[in-house]
Write a structure and sequence with these properties.
Cytochrome Bc1 Complex, Chain D, domain 2, 51% helix, 111 residues
Length: 111
């Protein structure tokens, strides 16, 4: 358990220490979700989850290409946390949660 926490902390530092990610105002919701998934959420979703479209290979959480979750399932997990996954409700806005949920569902063909 301590090893995983150390690896997550090291990855966050390597990705910029959890600094906010700025998105272009004209970015599509899909693009916003992709950027948030890859680096905007702290810790980044791709750190733990594999998702081919995002180029991530995380092995702590389920492989999203295999799980194929729908947007509601992703949003619920982001808001509430699940297993070792923390809740993002305090660190992401509802529109950011919805953007990630839509991105993951579409990218994994769960929609």
């Amino acid at each position: 358990m301590k090893v995983r926490a150390y690896l997550i902390a090291a990855a966050i530092l390597a990705l910029g220490g959890g600094q906010p990610v700025t998105l272009a105002a004209e970015a599509s919701p899909f693009e916003q979700g992709r950027v948030l998934f890859q680096q905007g959420a702290v810790p980044p979703c791709g750190l733990c989850h594999a998702l081919k479209a995002a180029g991530t290979e995380g092995a702590i959480g389920p492989a999203l290409d295999e799980l194929k979750p729908d947007p509601d399932r992703v949003a619920r997990a982001l808001r509430n946390g699940i297993g070792q996954m923390p809740s993002y409700q305090g660190s992401l806005s509802e529109s950011q949660i919805q953007a990630i949920a839509a991105y993951v569902a579409k990218a994994s063909a769960g929609r």
